[in-house]
Amino acid sequence: MRSKHPWAFYFITDSNLTKQGFRKDSEDAIRGGARVMQYREKNKPLHDMAAEAKALMGLCKGSGIDLIINDSPGLARAVGASGVHIGPGDVPLSAAREVLPGGIIGVSCGTVQEVKRAEIGGADYIAASPVFFTSTKRDIGRPVGLEGLAMFREATDLPIVAIGGINLGNVREVVLAGADSVCAISATVGTPDVAASVREFEGRIKAALKERGR
Known about the structure:
- With about 210 residues, this protein is α/β, with parallel strands linked by helices.
- It has one domain (about 10-210): Alpha-Beta Barrel (TIM Barrel).
- Helix content is about 40%, strand content about 15%.
- The chain contains 8 helices and 8 strands.
- An 8-stranded parallel sheet has the order 1-2-3-4-5-6-7-8.
- Helix 3 links the parallel strand 3 (about 65-70) and strand 4.
- The chain is globular, with a radius of gyration of 16 Å.
């Protein structure tokens, strides 16, 4: 992860926004070209989450896709996922690394100071969150904007995943500002054709990365 970021579109499941269910969304995202997906679920019992994560792991393993589990290093280890993504209110990065010594660990960051702490702490990538205002998540801070994203890019060599209020209309400027990968939840799982939406994002992200010289 540190040497070369393998992802363009970063797919995240969302049981509140889905129109077809997380399994169908995930299958469609893979058909659309996604090479990573994050299982994110806040409201279900642990045994239900474990069953869903295990099902996604089977899907991802068969397709060569990285599966990242939101919040729970223990669940990530239990299902054999590629890694975990943690935010400010989750387990500390050091504790996550103890559980997943060889796994991918991503950390949500809202300030340059948080970016630097994540890099020093051994994160494999950081998520700039949120870039713009979003209604998908309510427990997040003030948007960092394109200027903040550019500051993150200056502050670290780690891969940056941009999330929050991103759509097909602004994805190019987000990548040009410094993002290596982009997540857009409502602009994919909230659409009638998830595969087509992911495919369009993949194409635009890769074109913008090429324009940026990556």
